[in-house]
Amino acid sequence: MKKIVKVICICACASVLMYGTNFINAYENNNIGFSFDVGAWLTNGRVQNGRYRSTTDSNNSWKAQLKTSTEGKGTITVFWLEHKDGTNVSYDMKLYQGDSARYDSVKKKANQSTVYLTGENNNYSDNYYHVSGYWDEETGVYLNR
Fold it and tell me: Considering 52, 125, 129, 133, which has the largest number of Cβ atoms within 10 A of its Cβ?
């Protein structure tokens, strides 16, 4: 009888580790790399692959950090989250190249949906440039807007 209970406990623990990890990872504060071109005349650029926000809490923030920009050191790019159809589902976030990561809450439409990091130049100019850095669609860091 003790062996059966021990086997059941081991199986239960293994199941939690195998299946519970995906749920736990969704709320981790990850650094997902991004790299894309920002177009001229306020043309948006965005990541090719979206990420699923499983949370139902709009205060579970997203984050972004602009590590490099071929526009130059200390320049600004405006980022936000959107759906595949281009619907904006977060508030704009102005990021300076080289600064640390910033966090913000989202609009309700972002929850339980696939979102894409999108960016545009903060200047109306004919220049396009390349940006890269890190983002995460849901961090487990809670902010009130």
Answer: 133
